[in-house]
Amino acid sequence: MPNTSCVDAAKTDTHVQEAHSKSIAVDPGDSAHFWQQLPDSILLCIFSNLPARELLRAAQTCRSWYRVALDEYLWKDLLYRTWKIPRSIARVPKALSWYAEYKRLYYHSPYVETENVRKHTDQVLHVSFAHNGELFATTSKDGSVQVWTSTYPTRLKHSADLRQLTWKYTQFSQFNRTDTLLLVSGVHFGAHSTSGEIAVFSLQEGDEFELQSRVINKPYDIFGCWYNDSYLLSGNLHWLGNYSSCSAVWLNKAWVKCCYRRAACNKQYHLQLRKQEYRNCLWYHADLVIPSSWDSVLQSFIYRHS
Description:
By secondary structure, this protein is α+β, with helices and mostly antiparallel strands. Helices cover 27% and strands 32% of the residues. The chain is built from 9 helices and 13 strands. A 5-stranded antiparallel beta sheet has the order 9-10-11-12-13. A 4-stranded antiparallel beta sheet has the order 1-2-3-4, with no helix packed on it. A hairpin with a 6-residue loop joins β3 (144-149) and β4. The protein is elongated and about 80 Å long. The termini are far apart. The relative contact order is 0.06.
């Protein structure tokens, strides 16, 4: 980039604007005039060879360069080249612009690769981190969940193949608040239909990643989550008719004393909310008298059934 010319253009920008406003002819040999009159197509061609830092510096030269430097197609190409993203992958729907998406990736995405872990045999779907920062868990389309240490180099600490429980893949994981249990959500193939299922594993020393409980979760794209250290939430959906459905939120204890390795088994309490729909009208009927907040409902369930 001709830095000298850019400085000249910045210094004489006011002079050129005054000349145009007064209809005074500007000397064609003036370097500032030359750079001011460059067509957008030529500027785009020049700017397309600049890295992001130099492109932003060029944008500070004058109004014309600022407008061209923020061209959407320019930042789209720069984003794909910088992060080596396949062009078949579209921009995330919530992104305001290609320039805004570039800023998001630059400021909020890690860009220094320390090591490449290749234990999974298929696509990794989710990564979650423990609250104390000592562990992280990965789920994958290969049907396994793996727990790693966050030290360098990283080390595989626990692993479980949930295809033995007729799971197709694992899609989500979450540590409880004290990092003693790990919730794993995935797609389970039952006898008659495909549904989701949640498995809870112990992370305490000496337990060797022992399976604590299993919970059926419908539909399978409801991942479930922790309510507190001992209870987790799951869901269920019942179709009652053409325009009627019933959704249930289940409160589950994280561990039970039963043969959980063979079948889904857990102690559950539920809150049921029914939605009836007719044309464009909606009516909601609660099958349970709900207090002022869902939190107080769940607290009362825990108090009564613990």
